[in-house]
Amino acid sequence: MAEQLVLEAFVGAGSAGSVIASRLTENPNYKVLLLEAGGDENSISETPAFTLFLQQTDLNWKYKNEQVPGACLGLKEKVHFHDHSLKWIHHKLTNYLCLFSFQSCLLPRGKVLGGSSTINYLLYVRGNKRDFDGWANLGNYGWSYEEVLPYFKKSEDNENPVYARNERYHSTNGNLTISDIKFKTPLSDIFLRAGQEFGYRIGDYNAENQTAFAPLQIFARNGTRCSTSKAFLHPTIGRKNLDIAKFAHILIDAESKRAYGVRFFRNGKYHDVYARKEVILSAGAANTPQLLMLSGIGPKNELKKLGIPLIKDLPVGFNLQDHYALPLVFLTDKPITYTPSRYNTILTNMSYDIYRSGPLSVPFGIEATGFISTKYQDPKLDFPDIQLFLVSASAATDAGKFTLKLVEESKAFKEVNAKYHFVPIPMCPNAVPPSDEYLDCYMRWYTTVEHHLSGTAKMGPHDDPTAVVDPELRYHFLLILLKFNLNFRVYGISGLRVADASIMPIVTTGNTNAPVIMIGEKASDLIKNSWKNA
Ligand SMILES: Cc1cc2nc3c(=O)[nH]c(=O)nc-3n(C[C@H](O)[C@H](O)[C@H](O)COP(=O)(O)OP(=O)(O)OC[C@H]3O[C@@H](n4cnc5c(N)ncnc54)[C@H](O)[C@@H]3O)c2cc1C
């Protein structure tokens, strides 16, 4: 039998949700229940170098993708979603996005306090000014770069003294510790020098201009991961107005055609909770659309096929976006890359245990990044279309001519005899490396995705038929119902919001964790303002 609890609001506990729960409960009058399907972080998730192993653990939802033509062709395993609504979302959207799609690639998502910020690669990248101006130009008032910049700064505690002095862009007062990586192989400097040789500046890619090569800035405090759980939820311990229910699974009960609560299954029982103010969904770009569809909010024909009674026909899931990546391997005959014998030694382990530095403090060997424009983008725009990552045992590439040049023609890389390590692709026997044909084939068969799922509950103005939430992150259908049925206010139902990576109309230029945290900060203010005025 369901238990009845009465609470003011409840959210999911990922990158955005942790921020919102923490910010809302700064006001002792707001009582928040935070529901999270996963449990606590652990010592593996704390250690940056172990980040890849997390995908094999229960801290990951372990989704995989539907097969589609054109990508992930080399991955044999077919995908099985237990849940039909989720299966449909990925199937539909991978068809929609062609090259940004995948066939049976892994789709890791954090199932733990802090969500994907607890299992990600820790890279701190805000995106490009034009990303947010672009959102605003689509009709999303309040989301231009100048309007979101204060929210990036609000979260930030940047430990790099040079960056921190640039107060227009950076801050040292926020919850999230952002630090430079504490260890690098010689390849890191070689990569930066090679970038310089080709005219790129070395410097901050999160400030005035994004086009640059730079050592990584990461979400890390004292050499350990600074997830949104650590940054925003740990400091709330002791707050009486925040309850965190771990291992809970949210189901929206939408029988009465309005969002008034959540049903979740925990400890063998169903529990119903009712929100006196709002239901806030921050379940991420895969699970937020799933929960909406299970609640009857989604594409009419698909809900019909699945036998889910329709509440509102909305293009939930149609805008799924991600970045794809192409890992290319280079070889050098100099003893400078990560190998277990060089970097996984008693000494390196002790250096992490004692000083929280050394190779274990580097996320998966990623030491530096570079934002560059290919021939398809006007370099004067400072709107790069390729992000390079130097992983000190291989290198990411632009899938085109630049990284060929960077490694084989720059003096810096020549000094260490770096050479592409081309593997033959049996499926494309006539493709000669490093031709475009070879790289095209490589990308389609050995596709890697960047895990930046976003856009599945797209934010847009009221006249945008592809939008799911409005610029204040509320569902369009609630606004329409409010307009015609004032009883919603009488019953104290002020709405249903989404605040996570799902709302991005267009994915940002770079990694998505920092923008999602910004979304959480801005959503918190939008929610507080609307509650104040209610
Ligand atoms: C492997 C990996 C590497 C990445 N690397 C980087 C990187 O280096 N830098 C970067 O900027 N970005 C990176 N990203 C992307 C970034 O981490 C995400 O964009 C961001 O964390 C998404 O935040 P979110 O709030 O939308 O969702 P999430 O952080 O995924 O949060 C959703 C939360 O909701 C919970 N939830 C979902 N469904 C339910 C349910 N039914 N009931 C209860 N709880 C539920 C989940 O368990 C999860 O905790 C990476 C992502 C992954 C997966």
TrEMBL record:
FAD binds at V112. It comes from the Eukaryota. The keyword Flavoprotein applies. This is Glucose dehydrogenase [FAD, quinone]. The keyword Flavoprotein applies. InterPro entries: FAD/NAD-bd_sf, GMC_OxRdtase, GMC_OxRdtase_N, GMC_OxRtase_C. Residues 110-133, 284-298 form the Glucose-methanol-choline oxidoreductase N-terminal domain. One of its GO terms (molecular function) is flavin adenine dinucleotide binding. Keywords: FAD, Flavoprotein. Its cofactor is FAD. The lineage of its organism: Eukaryota, Metazoa, Ecdysozoa, Arthropoda, Crustacea. Belongs to the GMC oxidoreductase family. Signal peptide: none annotated.
